[in-house]
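Hi R.,

Here's the input for the magnesium ion complex you asked about:
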Amino acid sequence: MTNPTQTQPQPQTQPDETQQTLTQPSRRLLSMQGALNLALDHALAADERTLIFGEDVGTLGGVFRVTDGLQQKYGPQRVFDTPLAEAAIMGMAVGLAMQGWKPIPELQFDGFSYPAVDQIVNQVARMRNRSRGAFSMPITLRLPSFGGIRAPEHHGESLEALFAHVPGLKVVSPSTPAEGYRLLRQAVADPDPVIFMEPKSRYWYKGAVDSADAEPALPVGTSRIVRRGSHVTLIAWGAMVARCLKAAQLGAEDGVEIEVIDLRWLKPIDAEGIAESVSRTKRAVVVHEAPLTAGLGAEVSALVSERCFGDLRAPVGRVTGYDIPYPSQAFEDAYLPSVDRILNAVQRVLEYRRG
Amino acid sequence: MTNPTQTQPQPQTQPDETQQTLTQPSRRLLSMQGALNLALDHALAADERTLIFGEDVGTLGGVFRVTDGLQQKYGPQRVFDTPLAEAAIMGMAVGLAMQGWKPIPELQFDGFSYPAVDQIVNQVARMRNRSRGAFSMPITLRLPSFGGIRAPEHHGESLEALFAHVPGLKVVSPSTPAEGYRLLRQAVADPDPVIFMEPKSRYWYKGAVDSADAEPALPVGTSRIVRRGSHVTLIAWGAMVARCLKAAQLGAEDGVEIEVIDLRWLKPIDAEGIAESVSRTKRAVVVHEAPLTAGLGAEVSALVSERCFGDLRAPVGRVTGYDIPYPSQAFEDAYLPSVDRILNAVQRVLEYRRG
Amino acid sequence: MATSDAAARDASSPSAASDIPAETLATLYRCMLLARRLDLDCVAMQRQGILPGYAPMQGQEAAQVGSGLALDAGRDFAFPTYRELGVAVAMGVDLVGYTASHQGSWHGGLYDPAASHFAPINAVVGGPVPHAVGWAMGAQLNRTDACAIAYFGDGASSQGDVHEAMNFAGIYRLPVIFFCQNNGWAISLPSERQVAGGSVAARAAGYGMPGVRIDGNDVLAVYRATRDAVETARSGGGPTVIEAMTYRVGPHSTSDDPGRYRSLAEEQSWLERDPLTRFAARLRTEFGFAEVFFDEAGAAADVVVQATRTAVTTLVVPPGGEMFDFVFSAPPAALLEQREAWQRETQTSQREG
Amino acid sequence: MATSDAAARDASSPSAASDIPAETLATLYRCMLLARRLDLDCVAMQRQGILPGYAPMQGQEAAQVGSGLALDAGRDFAFPTYRELGVAVAMGVDLVGYTASHQGSWHGGLYDPAASHFAPINAVVGGPVPHAVGWAMGAQLNRTDACAIAYFGDGASSQGDVHEAMNFAGIYRLPVIFFCQNNGWAISLPSERQVAGGSVAARAAGYGMPGVRIDGNDVLAVYRATRDAVETARSGGGPTVIEAMTYRVGPHSTSDDPGRYRSLAEEQSWLERDPLTRFAARLRTEFGFAEVFFDEAGAAADVVVQATRTAVTTLVVPPGGEMFDFVFSAPPAALLEQREAWQRETQTSQREG
Ligand SMILES: Cc1ncc(C[n+]2csc(CCOP(=O)(O)OP(=O)(O)O)c2C)c(N)n1
Ligand SMILES: Cc1ncc(C[n+]2csc(CCOP(=O)(O)OP(=O)(O)O)c2C)c(N)n1
Ligand SMILES: [Mg+2]
Ligand SMILES: [Mg+2]
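And here is the predicted structure with magnesium ion in place:
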């Protein structure tokens, strides 16, 4: 019997585009916020059935300004503010999709998507299945996500494990402006519902973005090796990718060659891509902001064990948030996986001896 | 550095009480539904601050009759029907707990707890932490759960992974009437919120229940070995425990000695107990009804790998529902882990050769 | 069922209501009768083990057929719950496909919801109501004059989703009708312990929209109120709440036991207000419909009921592999793998078992 | 703050309102003034980097203090949002502990919410409203005459939770007050595009409860309306909706830029209706309060503001390990392990870094 999860799309890698130069005219230096704004702008221009709506996305341009200027440019029919009700926002998206529209709703913060969980799980994710394909749900839910911005309670949540467990949803999170542009265009173009988790703490980091890159090259569900290494593989997404790269730099100074994978798609997960890397490095550590227990790191750990059992020299490490509510500002740095904690975990898997 | 998850409560085991005889006067043969009803009856009698409420729990006694007769016995102030609104039911529980009451709300079906997810995650699970302990939340949410009863959409969901990931919640599911009685008393007595997942498909199965067993013997977070075996460990909860026992019986006929663990507590998980078993059997398969990806099986797999890395002869197997919405009645048997699928997985881990 | 046929022409000799042609009167009756008989037969099929469960709508035929026939099934769109057989009949939904949901073949049913303009059966109380609002917004953006109708119960009126949907509809002045069948009960809870203030229609004022409470067992009252609301919606007048007062005569579902929470006397008193009997009497006395019309309607209904039963009984459940096929437009590789593993294991167990 | 002190006795020479003693008038003013000055200083502390963020309540002092002082802080219980500094002042909440939430020391604040009868600060819009309903039910079960008050905004009125809570309160006739501060805006959305029908108070009728809309910048109107609602609640009359029409004069939070969505002229027009200035003028002209009262009130407020600032600036953030300590009554072993690992890694990185 073949294990049902043993075949997955082939991994495709590409160099980290932030290291490329800005030669083509379509390339510019943008923040993640700017790149996402550009992606929405182009998406609205490309398909007149796309609609943007949510709390404060119109006149204000979003509390993070990701929809800045779009209502002025595309009019209040295609970019509009809603009353303050997350369930209705997602429920309305379902009805609009049944009418052939392509909704791109925003829920203002991770922690405020919980009131919409019923509509997302019971309706958005299932309407296509329930209607035997009569109604596609090409909905892209933009969700400012994860912590690290010194915000009040409910503004630092990581919901990827919840959404990745829901059949019918795809989940993705970009780590750089270029990825933000490319993945958001891809999510909007996708005929199925995509939860697009924007790492809030990366909104203002800049990188090169190629807006001619409208046709996404990597299929849904492919990861990206953002740094090559031979001793251990770090697997991360969102803001933790930059932190892993930092750890890899420091590791290199000590002679530890760390490979870093930006998982990008959190459902479907690129199990094949991860396995290819770990079969070379023989060791893996997964890093996320969400609490440990039943976090997506457990799935990554299980997948790696299933596919690389014979190769693994140590159990897959998990560096994660703790099993506590995301804490207030004063404790944020203590809570989030730090470069130190990542390096400690790397050291543990390197020094691991079978007991 | 010690791995933060390496110390857990010591496992305590006890014989499967369904195999004991009914000698003591406090012992009787009850269905799971009857055992839960008895537990609620005793909980209401034991503490006058306990309250039962939810949709149809009063006059009707619940759609599964778990609260049958309790309103007549304890009055409409302590056992009452609510309007049809799950978020308000859980929100009201929070306010009642802040007044010193001990709410035992019911949400009618697993799939209808989604509208209450915001109150459960953002309020029930956090009020204690937010108030620095000023307000405990001794709330037991009774949630008829899992599939197997030929019901319509939304009546066969498994939400344990969602709830186990939420800091501040405990999650438990009984597999037998005796366990139902004992664990429900324990959940109600617990000072923290407990999600009590009742396996619907087991409501009418009978077993011996000792109602004198009011003081639960096993601490929160301990699992139970329900069958001893030396070749492989099956880990399951709820209705899947019986199915694993069936598989173990069939396995024994073929000379395969299967150990079966009833995990009971899905948060906190008895990692130590599982590890003790797997360190003996060297092989493990986790079985659940929920979809594969990011299911609780991933957490169990990760924990086993972390603790038994040197002992494991094969990657931890996962026999689960598929990554599709829980299907309609005609497909239910095809979807749920069958004895055949469990035995296939056992065979795979037994025949596994390091590639 | 919504179109005229030979029997309808026969019935055209009777007189019309001032605002409703005789042919429509005939269609209303025929749909109600068919809904009644099919509903009773679904209960029978459940008892006979053909359907695993069913939610009877007996007593609500006027509310459902009267509203459903006031729509233009080619233009408007209905969002049902799990108890809208009468609306399905009125809108011409494939009834075998409809019943397939209760038969366990497929959540949502096997009819084509896009072609039928009748959304898949939805079991989340309150959940589909915001969909109607979104659909109505889409219709408005398309500059059509189509409208959406959301069906929901007295129990559903307590849900947050319904409030949010009404507020959105009021803010955007959307062409949507909130059609509440207040059938007295939400399983075991009577509506007076469900609806604070006592009236769902009265809530409409709080959203700045008209709300009407009507006798939901008077099919003409229902038809007129819905027709007016449709008119309002088409002409840019925005949303309306209609609360049709009716009664669930049967159990909540075939596994329910109403004897535990209500009296036979109450049920009896509502049986006396039976919408079908009432309408038949009016058709005879007020509009001069002849016995032959009723005979033919009964015979026609029986044909459909019998054909539906035969088809449902012999319904070929979709092959098991289909449970994987509609989750995504293009299933990801991991899901295809699961499908293949399922196929292999199914074959294995067939071999072994 | 709610108790009388020396200055209040000084102020007792002025005349009282027909139904409000002069001492209460004085307390109302003092609380409003303190709320105003502390609020402004919180904005200043945010600019100075002492607070990471803050949600100013300038302009809403009358609504908050007027309602908060109408409660019995030893008996009743308030459920605030994130913008209820004025209520905290009126109820005598420890203001350093209150500000600690905005300072980032602890979600919900460092005051004792059980002793203060003022729930932890709650950032989920609409989320705490059902808690007030549950608390009120608990009070009713306890056979006390205590009542609960839920604070929420015009934006929150759109949330399903608020509807569900009002319906529950109506069904059970609970002693709870739904106090809506309609401050014109929910971040960038004006209330006329938020509240279909235009009035939150008008929704009360739909739940069979009284709803009153009052001038939220008239502290005596607020005080009277709340006092009446409390009276109704205590005497078994059930819930009330109060909609206090007011205005958020400042930004939504210190990271908001109102220039993007509203005009200076609008802000200006509301500054002219400033509740503090209005009340001061009435105290002078109508009730004969002397200058010395205002001077003393100002001086007293400044003392509290200064003391609060000093304490907040030097606030000792709880030790990091505390983030593990309040999640459960007794932390499970796995969590204790995480705490220990955290401790070790913290020490490691201090050693390394
Ligand atoms: C969100 C949700 N909660 C609970 C249920 C379980 N349930 C199914 S029908 C029902 C009662 C519905 O009453 P009402 O809205 O009046 O409709 P009726 O059944 O009377 O047609 C309940 C509680 C559900 N399906 N969905
Ligand atoms: C459930 C939820 N959704 C979104 C937000 C983000 N948010 C914070 S305040 C706010 C506006 C609230 O407006 P209103 O209720 O009028 O209160 P005000 O801020 O005016 O006091 C929003 C959208 C939130 N905190 N909670
Ligand atoms: Mg009903
Ligand atoms: Mg406001």
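One thing worth noting: The CA atoms of residues 31 and 205 of chain B lie 5 Å apart.

Cheers,
M.
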